[in-house]
């Protein structure tokens, strides 16, 4: 059993214990069939001449390979352009790999639901680049000064009321007056969030009901549905998602899900 980090516990005046998931042993520097084809291009060509089915398979793999990028600043503008064009991309966060799109694009949001096989009644969180951006999308004036800055950036999702002034499209999580907000402690996704000048809809990169992803290999079956897949290596936090805290009501809070956080900012 682990305790919530001191930073989080001090902010909320609460110490809770929860079980964390063991660190994943999965992931490698290779990309399965993709790396095999890269190493054996000559052999692959000879097969293509005699087998049309293999040709189609290899073309799909090549297309997936072309979508794979390092999660580095050099590719941030490309990712931003894809988001503004209504595309879905896969990105690393400080917890898990996620699927992201423009939260204000109803078509892109619907595409994420299709890719994951997720029920439309299951809400999506949003991601912004900085804590100061949250006020554009959710109500924060009831919170103690400095509370959000003490929790974020980090592996925490804060649930807040959307309010009438929120610029979020009504098609995002219809029927709900609250929204989960993330500011991950991960440079790449924060950079593209800033450049996009909007909120990103964000959910884990896996089929609904399947294990979460800590490396790009884990969701290789979804690459073909993404404009780009940004590789940040094997994430060290294990398969626990962010800790979700309900801050919708003044003077109180509720931990909805105890997730990643035990090793976060223990100072």
Quick overview of this protein structure:
By secondary structure, this protein is an alpha/beta fold. The protein is 27% helix and 18% strand. The chain has helices spanning 6-12, 33-39, 41-48, 52-67, 76-84, 106-116, 147-151, 187-196, and strands at 2-3, 17-18, 68-70, 89-92, 97-102, 125-127, 156-161, 178-182, 200-204, 228-231, 243-246, 254-257.
Q: From N to C, what is the helix and strand string?
A: EHEHHHEHEEHEHEEHEEEE
The overall strand count is 12
Largest sheet: 10 strands, mixed
Q: Please mark out the parts with pLDDT under 50 across 5 or more consecutive residues, or reply none.
A: 14-34, 43-50, 262-267
* pLDDT averaged over residues: 82
Structural class: alpha/beta
The CA-CA distance between the termini, in Å, is: 19 Å
Shape: globular
Helix content: 25-40%
Give the helix tally: 8
Strand order, main sheet: write it out.
Answer: 3-10-4-5-9-6-8-7-11-12
The radius of gyration is 20 Å
Strand content: 15-25%
Task: Give the SSE layout.
Elements: E1 2-3, H1 6-12, E2 17-18, H2 33-39, H3 41-48, H4 52-67, E3 68-70, H5 76-84, E4 89-92, E5 97-102, H6 106-116, E6 125-127, H7 147-151, E7 156-161, E8 178-182, H8 187-196, E9 200-204, E10 228-231, E11 243-246, E12 254-257
Parallel strand pairs: 3-10, 4-10, 6-8, 7-11
Antiparallel strand pairs: 1-2, 4-5, 5-9, 6-9, 7-8, 11-12
């Amino acid at each position: 059993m682990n305790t919530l980090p001191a930073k989080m516990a001090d902010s909320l005046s609460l110490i809770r214990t929860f079980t964390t998931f063991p660190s994943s042993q999965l992931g490698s520097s290779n990309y399965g069939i993709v790396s095999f084809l890269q190493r054996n291009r000559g052999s692959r060509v000879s097969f293509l001449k005699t087998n049309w089915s293999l040709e189609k398979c290899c073309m799909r793999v090549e297309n997936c390979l072309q979508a794979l990028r390092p999660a580095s600043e050099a590719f941030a503008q490309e990712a931003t352009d894809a988001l503004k064009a209504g595309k879905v991309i896969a990105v690393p966060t400080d917890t898990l790999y996620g699927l992201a799109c423009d939260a204000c694009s109803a078509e892109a949001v619907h595409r994420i639901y299709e890719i994951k096989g997720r029920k439309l009644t299951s809400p999506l969180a949003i991601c912004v680049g900085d804590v100061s951006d949250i006020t554009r999308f959710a109500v924060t004036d009831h919170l103690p000064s400095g509370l959000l800055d003490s929790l974020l950036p980090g592996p925490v999702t804060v649930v807040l009321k959307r309010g009438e002034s929120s610029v979020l499209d009504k098609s995002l999580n219809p029927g709900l007056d609250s929204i989960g907000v993330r500011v991950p402690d991960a440079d790449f996704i924060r950079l593209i969030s800033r450049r996009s000048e909007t909120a990103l809809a964000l959910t884990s990169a896996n089929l609904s009901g399947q294990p979460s992803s800590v490396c790009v290999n884990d969701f290789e079956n979804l690459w073909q549905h993404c404009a780009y897949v940004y590789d940040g290596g094997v994430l060290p936090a294990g398969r626990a998602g962010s800790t979700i805290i309900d801050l919708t009501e003044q003077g109180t809070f509720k931990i909805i899900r105890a997730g990643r956080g035990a090793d976060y900012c223990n100072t």
